[in-house]
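tool=predict chain=A
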Amino acid sequence: MISKLVLTGAGGFLGWHVRVLARALGLPEPIIVDRGMLAEPHRLASALDGADRVVHLAGINRGDPADVGAGNVDLARQLSAGLRACGTPPKTVVFANSIQAGNGTPYGDGKATASVLLAETTRWFGSEFVDVPLPNLFGEHGRPNYNSVIATFCRLLADGGTPQVTGDRSLELLHVTDAAHLLLGTGAASPIEHRTVHELAEQLENFSATYRSAQIPELRTRFDVRLFNTYRSHLAPAPFGLTRHADARGSLVETVKVHGGGGQTFCSSTVPGVTRGQHFHLAKVERFVVVRGEAEICLRRVLHDEVLRFRVSGDEPVVVDMPTMWVHNITNVGAGELTTLFWSNDLFDPANPDTYPEPVS
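tool=predict ok
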């Protein structure tokens, strides 16, 4: 059981996902070590002292090759100095390494040297050292032109552009939540997926074309779901308008159209003033459609403060899809009963509900 968790590099893409997963699993709020603290051994030692798990994510991925190689070694050296100054050394030190370690490039050789430094330091005071070589990571809220080609393609498509592929090659891919599980020691290794850059561009273009009309694309595999959620994270959460078909009998709106799959649809009634939800999901694709009454749907990205609010009505039904890793709720703000239709891409599993309680505000 982890009672004290320390993270370096917590402000980056991988760091945010590690913090979100720690929150979802009910782990203690991590102690965050920034670059300033890394440079002060005694202050750093105070943060590290007695920790159950130290996860070293801080690194340099872009820049002058020599600076990248030396920078990763320097960061490991700074952490080692803080570890050696601890009165009670951490039980476990985890290093977010790369499958490129030792490949002859400045980056790869820098990561390999950093790993050796940390292994020697932990051996010196008897702590466990866990080296986690990570492949190309992708996932929600990645930074375009920096974290991954997937993030770059998603941003292009979200902005109405088209990905261009030059020099196609195969990539080894792992969703960032799976990487976070490995680093926190909370899950088994997930299979690494192999896709070419062209295959990724083609699949993401299909996602974009289908989702543009509020339809759900074919999500056959776990990888497909996570890639779709990655694409969705580059779209600002907002209601989709629905087309109403009316005749003398009444009216009809198509709320969920799923390509090549089903999922689960359910309906709820909510009395005035009551709020449902107050949770977030790590992987589930979820859709809300109010079909009767008045509601306010609120969303907030985990570990952020801004709350988005959408007023919706059964008189003019719209689709609101919940982004993964965003806390959300729905409140009946009308005078009468609220009826809401919900859809999710998978069947509810009480043993693994992928639902993590947290209030929106």
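The chain has a mean pLDDT of 96. Residues 5-204 form a domain with the Rossmann fold fold (CATH 3.40.50.720).
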